[in-house]
Specification:
By secondary structure, the chain is of the alpha+beta class. Helix content is 50%, strand content 20%. The chain has helices at residues 3-48, 94-98, 150-185, 187-201, 218-276, 288-323, 335-346, 372-388, 445-455, 489-500, and strands spanning 50-55, 61-66, 78-84, 89-92, 115-121, 124-135, 138-148, 331-334, 354-357, 367-370, 394-402, 405-412, 459-465, 469-479.
Length: 501
């Protein structure tokens, strides 16, 4: 069953129920008002009548009903009947006697109760008021005063017919019109369905559903919601497409980076086999010293390439963890101790430039929340890159504290980069054109450093000019620790180790 049909059925059922309640209310209201007037008239005329009783010689009680001579003409419209239970006698009014009929009455005086009853006598409907005749505390008869209500019964029959027929016709008309209006009202939804199917079958997710009618109604809101959903789907699809292209580029670059050292290793292994193979000794007329020297060079090349592959695989493993949503374990780390350790170890890195570090007294009692090992790895990546691309000059580390942020500035006077290359330097395997083939590297270090910065809720700024060097500024949020929590340096380490656990 379609929505339009369900809506029409519900509306029609609700209308039918409303008409039923309305018809019952009208019928009950008319019935109450008409018969209430009859009841009042019957009771009023009955109360105006008087009973005169006599006791016969045989002990039977006889009574007569008298109507006051000054009563109104309404008695002419009423039919009066009395019955004497002691003498078994009937008394009728003239109009009832002319009709040659009598009202049924209770068979026993004990069953006589004052009240109103609707009686059907020979196919004629009467509304009758019963009043017992009590003489000496004993019911000896009953007075029945009735009014002919046949016309009223016909009226109520006609009223019932009209209400039922009118309700049925109204429901049928409402069902037809409701089905038409529901179809017309839901037509924009059909348009939305057709437009959505076109979007689904097509390859262009930029298609949007045209809006019909006022934007504040439900159809307009539905159209706006679907268009918004399509926009998010388009963005998500584009992101997935970009990620897929980046993944393919990553696999291609990784294959290329791994193929080069493997080729070098295989070439050196083949060379060693030829030099030290007995059957190939005559092909390579080398002295023993030359053979040992060439073997040492080949083994050195193999070791260098193996270490390069190991470093590359470790970097790729770190990025794979980042892609899998790996979260680093964090603890409160003292900034001063972290920087001092990095500065001390950095001076032993291979370099041809000067290493400069400026002390900062503001680093005392400053803390960040993070992983000490990853933070050191991030700093060493920037420092090693600075040494690598600064053949002469200096590399400087400056630490500043500004607006609850820790700034780590790594500045070099090396070869620098073009501005158009800056947005790509954190991409995997990306290397500036000026450094390709000149400086060794895999192009993964800055990608790992960017991931570490993001994991610690920080940011990075890059300033560079070709031939004038490059400056990286890493910003990390500081953690506020009350002074009473700060202990001696040795105890601080204990506290940190407890938190790390």
């Amino acid at each position: 069953m379609s929505i339009r049909l369900r809506l029409t059925v519900w509306y029609s059922a609700l209308l039918a129920f409303t008409l039923f309640v309305f018809g019952i209310s009208i019928y009950a209201f008319v019935d109450y008002n008409i018969y209430s007037d009859i009841k009042n008239r019957l009771k009023h005329q009955t109360q105006q009548m008087s009973v005169q009783s006599t006791v016969k010689w045989n002990g039977d009680i006889s009574f007569d009903i008298f109507v006051p001579p000054n009563s109104d003409n309404s008695f002419e419209e009423l039919y009066i009947q009395t019955y004497n239970y002691t003498s078994k006698e009937y008394r009728f009014s003239e109009n009832l006697q002319d009709l040659r009929m009598k009202f049924p009455f209770p068979s026993s005086p004990k069953d006589v109760q004052e009240g109103y009853k609707r009686l059907n006598v020979s196919g004629n409907e009467f509304y009758v008021y019963h009043q017992p005749i009590d003489i000496g505390g004993e019911v000896v008869g009953v007075i029945q005063v009735g009014a002919y209500t046949g016309d009223h019964a016909a009226f109520f029959k006609l009223l019932r017919t009209i209400l039922i027929f009118a309700s049925m016709v109204t429901v049928v008309i409402a069902f037809s019109l409701g089905l038409f209006l529901a179809q017309k009202s839901l037509r924009p939804i059909e348009n939305i369905i057709r437009a959505t199917n076109r979007v689904q079958k097509g390859a262009d997710l930029s298609v949007r559903i045209p809006r019909e009618g006022p934007p504040e109604d439900e159809i307009g809101q539905l159209t706006e919601t679907i268009n918004s959903m399509l926009g998010r789907m388009e963005t998500f699809y584009n992101e997935l497409d970009d990620a897929y292209r980046a993944q393919r580029r990553f696999v291609s670059d990784a294959s290329h980076e791994l193929r080069t050292p493997l080729t070098t290793i295989r070439g050196n292994v083949d060379l060693l086999e030829k030099m030290w193979s007995t059957k190939n000794t005559n092909e390579l007329p080398l002295t023993e010293d030359e053979r040992e020297q060439m073997s040492e060079e080949a083994l050195r090349d193999i070791g260098d390439e193996a270490r390069r592959m190991s470093h590359l695989i470790n970097d790729m493993l770190s990025l794979a963890r980042a892609d899998a949503g790996y979260k680093v374990e964090k603890e409160v780390v003292e900034v001063k101790g972290l920087i001092e350790e990095v500065v001390r170890r950095a001076q032993f890195l291979p370099r041809t430039s000067d290493w400069i570090f400026e002390e900062n007294a503001e680093l005392s009692n400053k803390f960040v929340r993070g992983n000490k090992d990853y933070l050191q790895q991030m700093l060493f990546i920037f420092i090693e890159n600075a040494f690598k691309y600064t053949p002469s000059g200096s590399v400087e580390l400056i630490v500043v504290v500004q607006n609850d942020q820790l700034g780590l500035r790594i500045k070099d006077s090396g070869i620098g980069m073009d501005e158009h290359e800056v947005p790509h330097i954190f991409e995997r395997f990306y290397r500036a054109d000026v450094s390709r083939g000149i400086t060794s590297g895999t192009g993964l270090g800055l990608s790992i450093a960017k991931w570490i910065i993001d994991e610690h809720g920080g940011s990075v700024e890059v300033m560079t000019q070709p031939g004038e060097g490059t400056t990286f500024i890493v910003w990390l949020p500081l953690v506020h620790i009350p002074d009473e929590w700060i202990m001696e340096p040795t105890e601080v380490g204990d506290v940190k180790s407890d938190e790390g656990q």
